Amino acid sequence: MLDVHLRKSIGSPLKAKLFPVAFACLLLPGVLALSADCQDTQPRGASHASVSERQPPPPSAYAGDASCAGCHKEQAASYPLTAHHLTSELPSETSVGGNFNPGANVLHTAVPELTYEMTVRDGRYFETAVMRDDPAHPIAVTEPVDIVVGAGRKAKTYLYWRGDQPAEAPSATSDAAINQLFELPVSFWTETQKWVYSPSYEDGTINFDRAVVPRCLDCHASYFQSLAPPVNRFARNSLVLGITCEKCHGPGRAHVDLMNSKNPPSHGQPMAIVKLTDLPRDRQVDICALCHAGAVRPLAPSLTFLPGDEIDKFLRITDEKSDFPVDVHSHQVQLLKSSRCYRSSQMTCSTCHNVHTPQRDADAFSPYCLNCHQPAKCGKFATMGAQIAGKCITCHMPLQRSVVLFSEVDGQELHPTVRNHHIGIYPEATATPKSASGR
Ligand code: HEC
Ligand code: HEC
Ligand code: HEC
Ligand code: HEC
Ligand code: HEC
Ligand code: HEC
Ligand code: HEC
After folding, report:
1. Residue of 331 and 394 predicted with greater confidence
2. Within a 13 Å sphere around the CA of 35, how many CA atoms are in the beta-carbon half?
3. Among 242, 273, 304, which residue terminates a domain?
């Protein structure tokens, strides 16, 4: 394998094909259109001066998942299997997803002489672009996989740090070139088990320059310290990967200290931690909206939203619409809120989801519908009878191919499938439960 570091030479043969993706915010091109604003780290909502000046809690306010585990065994046992926990990790044999071994590790591109090779050496993972237009002098550009993003239900993508030394302390004096985070050009697509160009990288180009903005880590990690500018500069050691318990329950150091103290509070007394079921309904859903309302415009700095806060002061969430494009970057909040079920009941996300454990079987959700509905009230009951019982989801929350394009490989477009969270009546999903599950 070639892994000479030749960053400077990449411009020449392919210059016309290189394009400035640098500050693209989101994974999916379709989302880019909706989210040109999220490139900014700076809040813009002047009317919310109080939150826009808020500072994130210091790292010392957090205790970390390991410390919760000893006392909350039930949650701690299954949580590590969830997509939340696994959504960003260090590279390892289990986390990388794709096959980095010869035979399965090459992405061919629109330019026949250009390939990408994914390799593993001494436990480290790399992506290398190899240009062989002059066979005697191939050009290779290599960058390491430093962080894996995505639990891999649909895809995995990879990030790398540019610069050699991790800065010991987040000091403003360190070189700006160090600690900049970028997305690698090749991602792994789970459904087809194939390597694909990462979204917003153009097929046939050598490009490793897509900056990772804080908003990306807001949703896919738990903590980081920004060293902006530039926007993608972070203190490496400050990064807490995965979504931790405290992302939803708030900083937990005080709770841990209190519960370990000589006189811990008894059941029902204040416990210095956010109990979600004690919050008003809107505030419960707001926690999920931080990451499940799409790539909307931030009004306050990263990490300042805390459970219990009103999300509208932190993100400008677009209107609730049932025709919102379904995409991998998820508008579950808007879609659900647009449903009659939601409007006419006290439903929250927890009506169906227990986020402490993986739930991957759509049929297993039917009982939640039956908490509020009788099968006999469904228009299909007369003709289909009891068969509909376990199939409510298939017809009323159909799995749909996202309109958003993830990547294009060999002229084939990749569209992720997503569960439409607008609970409604879908005439096209009514033939039989089986044929309704994909389109
Ligand atoms: C030393 C043991 C201990 C540790 C460590 C601990 N907890 Fe708790 N926690 C408890 C006990 C005991 C309760 C009370 C349970 C009850 O009353 O039903 C509790 C209650 C809670 C509640 C509900 C609060 C309420 O008002 O009822 C949440 C949420 C919670 N813990 C989350 C966490 C998280 C997140 C962590 C890690 C950052 C954590 N806990 C660490 C012992 C602990
Ligand atoms: C800090 C951001 C964040 C918050 C807060 C958050 N999520 Fe998520 N959630 C994600 C991300 C990112 C994924 C996708 C993870 C992946 O596949 O890599 C996800 C995935 C999920 C999944 C699919 C899980 C699976 O294992 O298949 C469900 C369900 C979900 N979230 C529900 C919720 C609910 C309900 C809430 C609020 C109680 C919530 N999330 C809060 C970021 C978040
Ligand atoms: C607004 C929050 C948000 C932002 C910003 C965001 N994501 Fe996501 N991302 C999600 C959620 C939520 C999911 C899961 C969506 C679903 O399954 O409906 C997801 C899914 C993914 C997946 C597929 C995960 C899987 O298990 O299949 C990848 C890869 C990914 N995101 C990478 C990124 C990268 C890289 C960035 C930044 C450049 C980014 N995302 C920005 C919330 C976000
Ligand atoms: C994605 C958001 C999210 C994450 C991450 C999360 N929780 Fe929760 N947690 C909730 C929600 C929502 C509830 C209330 C509904 C329920 O029980 O499902 C809850 C309930 C609880 C409760 C019961 C007290 C209460 O608030 O009703 C405890 C204890 C708890 N979680 C501990 C943990 C621990 C420990 C972790 C990490 C291993 C964790 N949670 C991770 C969202 C989250
Ligand atoms: C928390 C209670 C609750 C749950 C859970 C619930 N619904 Fe509903 N749903 C309602 C209410 C209330 C209405 C409105 C009834 C009315 O206005 O007559 C409704 C309306 C509907 C409608 C009519 C929608 C329309 O646009 O006309 C359908 C279809 C439906 N629900 C299916 C489901 C399915 C399928 C599930 C499970 C995925 C589900 N519901 C879960 C409470 C709920
Ligand atoms: C084969 C597809 C299919 C399945 C499975 C199915 N439904 Fe329906 N459902 C429909 C259609 C289509 C309608 C619209 C009524 C009609 O025109 O027949 C409907 C209507 C409804 C309504 C609205 C009734 C009204 O008059 O407002 C509710 C509530 C409902 N279904 C609940 C459920 C529940 C709960 C389940 C699971 C037990 C379920 N449905 C399973 C297709 C289905
Ligand atoms: C009425 C039940 C219901 C409610 C309420 C609900 N969901 Fe879901 N959710 C589902 C079902 C069913 C699935 C599909 C599970 C599967 O196929 O693996 C799902 C899947 C998801 C996924 C994975 C997305 C995907 O397409 O793979 C995410 C993320 C999610 N839900 C987030 C949320 C959030 C956030 C809320 C609150 C705004 C919410 N859900 C409320 C039923 C519900």
Report:
1. 394
2. 26
3. 273
Contact residues for 413 (Cβ-Cβ < 8 A; gap 6+): 405, 407
152 touches ligand 3 (CB under 6 Å): yes
- Ligand 5 centre from 144 Cα, in Å? 49
Q: Is 125 helix (H, G, I), strand (E, B) or coil?
A: strand
243 shares a domain with 373: no
230 falls within a domain:
yes
Question: Cβ(217) to ligand 2 under 6 A?
Answer: no
Mutate which of 87, 291, 331 for ligand 2? The one with the most ligand atoms within 8 Å of its CB, which is: 291
Q: What is the pLDDT of residues 15-58, one digit of tens each?
A: 222 222 222 223 333 332 223 233 333 333 334 457 878 899 99
The candidate with the shortest Cα–Cα distance to 148, out of 218, 223, 97, 79, is 97
The length of the chain, given as a count of residues:
439
Same domain, 264 and 379: no
Closest residue by Cα to atom 43, ligand 2, is: 291
Confidence of residue 415 (pLDDT cuts 50, 70, 90): confident
pTM, two decimals, is 0.91
Tell me the pLDDT tens digit for each residue of 259-312.
999 999 999 899 999 999 999 999 999 999 999 998 788 899 999 999 999 999
Cis peptide before 229 (omega within 30 of 0): yes
* DSSP E strand stretches across 303-402: 315-316, 399-401
80-116 pLDDT, tens per residue? Answer: 999 999 999 999 999 999 999 999 999 999 999 999 9
45 CA to centre of ligand 6 in angstroms: 43
Residue 67 CB less than 6 A away from ligand 1: yes
Ligand nearest to the CA of 70: 1
Q: Answer yes or no: is the C-beta of 258 below 6 A from any ligand 1 atom.
A: no
Beta bridge partners of 358: none
Please give the residue that has the higher pLDDT: either 160 or 164.
160
Ligand nearest to the backbone CA of 257: 1
Ligand 4 proximity of 380 Cβ (cutoff 6 Å):
no
Does residue 145 sit in helix, strand or coil?
A: coil
Residues 195 and 106 in one domain: yes
Does the Cβ of 247 fall within 6 Å of ligand 1?
A: no
How many structural domains are present in the chain? 2
Confidence of residue 168 (pLDDT cuts 50, 70, 90): low
